[in-house]
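Project outcomes to date are best conveyed with an example. Our students and postdoctoral researchers have been running inverse folding experiments weekly, and each run begins with a structure described purely in tokens. The record below, which covers 289 residues, was selected by the lab manager from last quarter's runs and is presented without edits.
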């Protein structure tokens, strides 16, 4: 079995480490994603879990890298009618309102190729503005994001400071991708014909301030990950008696990891818990006991 060598890492990491793309850079990358989506949609497959983590770059050189669409674990094969009941384990932050409504008991959600196009709109929004459209500060829970997508799916683009710096063509594409009406949402094939995606109207300048916002998010994300990893390694060393602890040891490590977040034993993890953990993740921080 031979597979492609993908050495460039996740596009999500490139967004965080390298700062925001210019419109022209984003257009080139988005064009490749749209081409891949047009192909899989044409053969009746919906990815269903499109997000930056599942868009890999073929090389570490961002200018020359080719986008690879990966992780088809949630993918759905459409029926001859072109849709399927919306029973999915997709990532809430990139799921369209019609599917989230279905999970709230509204019997009208279906999986359709338009699902991926909404996800593409969220990704493009992050690429250009450095924020998730329904999680502006990066601290919302899945349930909060779900509620915002369901109750306020139509984003304000006019008279907004950040979006006012985008080209009219970029805003037009975002509106067509993030259209709450699934039937009116732009298709992958139509997206390939859009002048912004073709590079005809995309600006070359990077969105002012996006680098700083992405950098702050990177610091927070890395701090939480570093703290959890450091504690995991410390606990593992302490528990290692030279034998295979098996299920019990693994369960104990996960329980300790959860308790690192949930110090008050609420039974769930809040945004405040995340902030506290990030603040404790300095180089001299000790694992919680």
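After processing, the design step wrote out the following sequence:
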């Amino acid at each position: 079995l031979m597979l492609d060598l993908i050495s460039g890492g996740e596009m999500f990491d490139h967004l965080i480490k390298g700062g925001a793309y210019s419109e022209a850079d984003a257009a080139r990358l988005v064009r490749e994603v749209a081409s891949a989506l047009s192909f899989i949609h044409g053969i009746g497959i919906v990815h269903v879990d499109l997000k930056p983590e599942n868009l890999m770059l073929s090389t570490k050189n961002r200018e020359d890298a080719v986008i690879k669409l990966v992780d088809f674990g949630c993918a759905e094969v459409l029926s001859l009618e072109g849709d399927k009941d919306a029973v999915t384990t997709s990532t809430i932050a990139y799921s369209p309102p019609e599917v989230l409504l279905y999970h709230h008991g509204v019997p009208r959600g279906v999986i359709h190729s338009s699902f991926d196009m909404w996800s593409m709109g969220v990704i493009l929004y992050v690429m250009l503005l450095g924020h998730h459209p329904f999680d502006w500060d990066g601290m919302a829970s899945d349930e909060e994001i779900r509620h915002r997508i369901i109750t306020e799916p139509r984003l304000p683009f006019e008279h907004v400071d950040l979006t006012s710096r985008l080209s009219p063509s970029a805003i037009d594409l975002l509106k067509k991708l993030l259209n709450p009406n699934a039937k009116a949402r732009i298709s992958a094939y139509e997206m390939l014909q859009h002048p912004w995606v073709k590079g005809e109207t995309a600006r070359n300048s990077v969105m002012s301030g996006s680098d700083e916002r992405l950098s702050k998010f990177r610091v927070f994300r890395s701090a939480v990950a570093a703290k959890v990893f450091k504690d995991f390694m410390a606990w593992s060393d302490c528990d290692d008696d030279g034998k295979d602890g098996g299920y019990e040891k693994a369960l104990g490590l996960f329980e300790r990891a959860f308790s690192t977040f949930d110090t008050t034993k609420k039974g769930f993890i809040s945004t405040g818990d995340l902030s506290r953990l990030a603040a404790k993740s300095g180089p001299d921080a000790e694992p919680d006991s």
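Residues 282-289 have pLDDT under 50 and may be disordered. The longest strand covers residues 55-57. The training component of this project remains on track.
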